[in-house]
Amino acid sequence: MPSTFADLEYQALLLSPEDRVQLADRLLASLSSNPSVEQEWSAESLRRLAELEAGTDAGVSVESAIARAKAAIR
């Protein structure tokens, strides 16, 4: 029996942060026709995750990111 989107989402959210990053990278890569760009984005996302986990980068809050995105499209 095929899984529903909700089932897949639930299972994905049970993964570790590292595994979710890898899954997201693979899903995004499946949408692109340029593998070299996807490889670079994958390396960048893993680098950023490592910085967050090491505490060398505090990241940006969701609220701040949304506000910046809204401001950029106005």
What does this structure look like?
With 74 residues, the protein is mostly helical. The protein has one domain (5-73). It contains four helices and no strands. Helix 2 runs antiparallel to helix 3 (35-54).
Shape: globular
- The number of helices is 4
SSE string, helix = H, strand = E?
Answer: HHHH
The end-to-end distance, rounded to whole angstroms, is 45 Å
> Rg to the nearest angstrom?
15 Å
Helix content: over 70%
Instruction: Report the biggest beta sheet as strand number plus sense, adding barrel if it closes.
Output: none
| Mean pLDDT over the full residue set | 89
- Total strand segments: 0
Query: Which structural class do the helices and strands define?
Result: mainly alpha
Q: How would you describe the oligomerization state of the chains in this entry? A: single chain
Number of spatially distinct domains: 1
Q: Give unreliable regions as ranges.
A: none
- Please state roughly what percent of the residues sit in beta strands, choosing from under 5%, 5-15%, 15-25%, 25-35%, 35-45% or over 45%: under 5%
